[in-house]
Amino acid sequence: MESFEVLDELRRSHPDVPAPGSDAEREALERFATFFSSFTPDRVERLVPQTYADAVYFNDTLKSVRGRAPLILYLSESAEAVEDCRVEIVSSTPVQPGEFIVRWKMMIRFKRFRRGVETWTIGASHLRFDAEGRVIYHQDYWNAADGLFQHIPVLGWMIRAIKRRL
């Protein structure tokens, strides 16, 4: 199922969202920002249940998962793979009640690739919150080639060579 089909399904199955401009909506956005402000394994375990709904759909362009338990596993593994990762929210724009496009910039320092080098990338997340203010739909849009793939030894060399020829 495509991401937008999932979004339509979630809109139908979870129609209630925090009221636009409410404290609940503001708190939902703050929980999301807090969760990614310092991406570590212990924070994943502690903060995912209050940030993401049980029935969450999550796609970060690298992997798509459905459900909170698979999301905790995926994000824990991802957090273990980095020395440091921080996301700074640049802006949050409502697209309809309970849904936002959240623009961000992210810094990653990998454990295995280019150790100690800070990699910065930008992106956006399309979020939908459920009635409790937890993320039920999370679709990222970012350039994984710049943010991740260019740092993998052989693949990174090939990506940089292709970019030079364009």
TrEMBL record:
* Pfam families, alphabetized: SnoaL_2 (PF12680)
Q: Which residues form the SnoaL-like domain?
A: 35-138
Highest taxon above the source species: Bacteria
Protein name as annotated: Nuclear transport factor 2 family protein
Which source organism? Answer: Pseudomarimonas salicorniae
Organism placement in taxonomy: Bacteria, Pseudomonadati, Pseudomonadota, Gammaproteobacteria, Lysobacterales
